[in-house]
Design brief:
The chain is an alpha/beta fold and 286 residues long. It has 2 domains: 2-133 and 184-282, Rossmann fold; 136-180, no CATH class. The protein has 9 helices and 10 strands. The strands form 2 sheets. It has an 8-stranded mixed sheet, sandwiched between helices. Helix 1 (80-94) crosses helix 2 (106-117) and helix 3 packs across helix 4. It starts with a strand and ends with a helix.
């Protein structure tokens, strides 16, 4: 499905009803907006895993501007400010009030933009395997520890030059270092995905916003309940960056660092991570 948001056609999909039949009444469920990583990936990277929350929430997925199945858009609109404003506008167009917003990796950066630019809008936010600012020297050290000097060199080329050949090499030899397990159905998931390399290059290479962003001061504006999820073995958004987010938020933010887990802790240990998420979603007041 498509909807026009801030003049841009975005793809979105919904799993689960808003009103659940509950005996003689209709029970309203909160809306959980699930935002994918990247940039350049699409919402299918979080499916079918997050469909499970449809029993307690209406789950809304969408492809960020310029990403996945969303329509082409001008490069000058591929900014964290615009992506954050798109979350608010998507809710306005669809009639979503007080959403719980989950952001994985790059999606967590968008979630920080949204929550700091529109602090009165979300019911709650979940920042997963993300960063308020990047620490590439630390990441390169971890890649070398996990995969040797070759992995470090491949990662350095990917984050500094990003040719198609370097992109493919990174996906093959470095991306497996992101996690401590292999995702069940991973080949099928990669086959379903739509990759927009031009968005990654615009945002992530030198001169792009990735290396310039810093949400640490702005996170003090967040007023809703917040939870930060991280993996102790995450090489690209190491756990010290999750700790930075938690310390930058107002008191009360919940930090969960899962040992033996990498980027997207829910991928490596769903039996531990998803119940923590479920409890957080359920405890949010209507």
């Amino acid at each position: 499905m498509f909807v026009t948001v801030n003049g841009q056609r975005l793809f979105f999909d919904v799993v689960g009803e808003k009103l659940a039949i509950d005996g003689p009444r209709m029970r309203e469920k909160p809306t959980l907006i699930v935002m994918h990583g990247g940039p350049g990936f699409d919402h299918t990277s979080n499916r079918p895993e997050f469909d499970q929350f449809a029993d307690i929430a209406q789950v809304v997925y969408f492809d960020h501007r310029g990403n996945g199945r969303s329509w082409p858009s001008p490069k000058n609109t591929w900014t964290l400010a615009q992506w954050g404003d798109d979350v608010k506008a998507l809710c306005d167009v669809l009639g979503i009030e007080k959403p719980i917003v989950f952001g994985q990796s790059f999606g967590g950066m968008v979630a920080q933009s949204y929550a700091t630019r529109h602090p009165d809008h979300p019911r709650a936010v979940i920042f997963s395997s993300t960063a308020a600012r990047m620490d590439m020297p630390a990441s390169l050290d971890i890649f070398e520890r996990k995969g040797g000097p070759d992995a470090r060199a491949i990662a350095h080329r990917f984050w500094n030059e990003g040719t198609d050949e370097q992109f493919d090499e990174y996906m093959k030899k470095v991306m497996p270092l992101y996690n401590t397990t292999s995702r069940a159905g991973g080949e099928d998931a990669r086959g379903r995905a739509i990759m927009r390399r031009e968005v990654y290059r615009h945002f992530s290479l030198p001169g792009g916003e990735l290396l310039a962003m810093d949400f640490r001061a702005a996170l003090a504006k967040v007023t809703c309940p917040a939870m930060i999820l991280a993996g102790s073995e995450d090489p690209i958004t190491p756990p010290h960056l999750a700790t930075e987010i938690a310390s930058s938020l107002p008191p009360g933010a919940r930090l969960e660092i899962f040992d033996r887990c990498g980027h997207g802790a829910f991928r490596d240990d769903p039996a531990r991570v998803f119940p923590v998420m479920r409890a957080f979603i359920v405890e949010q007041p209507s």
